[in-house]
Amino acid sequence: MTQNINQPAETTAAEGAPETGAAPDQTNDSALVAQLEAEKADIKDKLLRTLAEMENLRRRTEKEVADARAYAISSFARDVLSVSDNIRRALETIPADQRASEGPLKAFADGIDLTDRELVKTLARHGVKEISPLGEKFDPNLHQAMFELPDASVPNGTVLQVVQTGFSIGGRVLRPALVGVSKGGPKAAPLLDDDTPII
């Protein structure tokens, strides 16, 4: 009988030992879980930031590649424009009556004219567009005013003469048009965004 009495006492002591040992283990487990949760949140934050940075890098690279395609020939096109200007000046030096009459000078002038048109077409195929603003309202973003012409019959600030044609590439001005602007006429009517006058 003494054995039976002692046995439950040992069992009770044995059962009591794990209970006192379980409290420190739960504390360690809770601390470990909290530490792992913090690490998980940190890693998730770093991952999301890295993904966002990679997406921004991808977009930035796409834009740079698109700009490089659109504007790669800018300096070359700017240099070729002087050739086009010289061709046009050569045409302007031939008197109109000699260009109209049949003969070798007319054929020569027609050849120069065809060469100029082909050059402008080639530039247009590569995104270089002409800015020919005759009769339009002066726009300082596209035009460079060289002089003012007194003319009361047209609104003030209208382009009356184009000294040198301008060119743009991909929406950017490659070379502004050199123009003569009207002075002294009535003020131009203000325009809406779609270029219709406000009445």
Automatic annotation (TrEMBL):
Q: Does the keyword Chaperone apply?
A: yes
Assigned GO CC terms:
cytoplasm
Report which residue ranges the record marks as coiled coil. 33-71
User: From which domain of life does this come?
Assistant: Bacteria
**What's one GO MF term for it?**
adenyl-nucleotide exchange factor activity
| Keyword field | Chaperone, Coiled coil, Cytoplasm, Stress response
GO annotations under biological process? protein folding
Q: Where in the cell is it found?
A: Cytoplasm
> Which segments carry the region annotation Disordered?
1-30
Which Gene3D superfamilies does the UniProt entry name for this protein? 3.90.20.20, Head domain of nucleotide exchange factor GrpE
Q: Where is the composition biased (Low complexity)?
A: 8-24
What does it do? Participates actively in the response to hyperosmotic and heat shock by preventing the aggregation of stress-denatured proteins, in association with DnaK and GrpE. It is the nucleotide exchange factor for DnaK and may function as a thermosensor. Unfolded proteins bind initially to DnaJ; upon interaction with the DnaJ-bound protein, DnaK hydrolyzes its bound ATP, resulting in the formation of a stable complex. GrpE releases ADP from DnaK; ATP binding to DnaK triggers the release of the substrate protein, thus completing the reaction cycle.
Output the PANTHER family linked to this UniProt entry.
GRPE PROTEIN, GRPE PROTEIN HOMOLOG, MITOCHONDRIAL
Q: How does it assemble?
A: Homodimer.
Q: Which family does it belong to?
A: Belongs to the GrpE family.
Protein name as catalogued? Protein GrpE
